[in-house]
Amino acid sequence: MRFETTIHRPVAASGVGLHSGVPVRICIKPAKAGTGIVFIRTDLDNFQIPASWRHVARVSYATSLMRQGVLISTTEHLLSVFYSMGVDNALVEIDNLEVPILDGSGRPFVRLILQAGIRPLRAKRKYLSIRRPISVEDRGKRISIIPADSFRLTCETDYPAPVGRQSLELEVTPERYASEIAFARTFGWENDLDQMRNMGLIRGASLDNAVCFTRNGVMNPDGLRAPDECCRHKALDLIGDLALLGRPLLGHVIAERAGHAMHAALVARIMSDASLYEIVPFDRLASGAA
């Protein structure tokens, strides 16, 4: 993609926050080149929080951003869609502290972006190209990134029965993301529900916005959208966290049982050492790399 992009026209959606349970409305608006993705808390005097690794606050069960004490929670699904669908610049007006979960996947946000339309801006797009391998490990979990001339993803997960081991590898393009990743919903286990609620989490969760596994199967009446829906959703989450790099990525990311905290650690590691990457304008990319 030669030029930076934004959306053609504003689009809006309403729902509840997965963890807070609060009602929330977002309105996504066009933005000029160089803006990036910026959240605007309309309930707090239009306070702005850029979607940047610099503002990562909490990364336990979701990725939250904070600036000067103001919070935006569960950002990963929307950021995943912006990043994968090639939207570089947008303003996200939001009237509460958590992005709405909608159906628990990225698909409603993909539909919003397609409804809004994507238009090029005049600024040339610049890519973050990984120059040498990087790895973050912790207690049998690992996330690595190696140089590549496109954005590739390998995601391996290992969960208790009935999910088990799953893996996925693909080059992330808008078309493949929309058809192979975006539909995958957030998920959890029935025997964890009480503990999570006692922690003040999943107050807005239901079978309409999350997959719930029992010891023997799936509680949702319609079942899974794909046999490996869990792995696909972890890939969705991973892309959303990588979006905090702030530029389209050229590299092959390999995640082995990683989660939000490790994703954030990888991003921080990359951005703390300028020798690990190069900012490359579109004109210098090899033909077909973008």
Keywords:
single chain; Ribosomal Protein S5, domain 2; 2 domains; 7-stranded mixed beta sheet; 6 helices; 19 strands; lpxc deacetylase, domain 1; 290 residues; 5-stranded mixed beta sheet; alpha+beta
Structurally, the number of domains stands at: 2
Strand content: 25-35%
Report low-confidence residues grouped into runs of 5 or more.
Answer: none
| Helical percentage | 10-25%
CATH topology of the largest domain: lpxc deacetylase, domain 1
Order of helices and strands: EEEEEEEEHEHEEEEEEHEHEHEHE
User: What is the number of E strands?
Assistant: 19
Question: What is the SS-derived class?
Answer: alpha+beta
Rounded Rg: 18 Å
Shape: globular
Q: What's the level 1 CATH class of the largest domain?
A: Alpha Beta
Number of helices: 6
Mean pLDDT: 95
Distance between the termini: 6 Å
What is the correct CATH architecture of the largest domain? 2-Layer Sandwich
Let me know the largest β-sheet. Answer: 7 strands, mixed
Q: Look at the structure and name the CATH superfamily of the largest domain.
A: lpxc deacetylase, domain 2
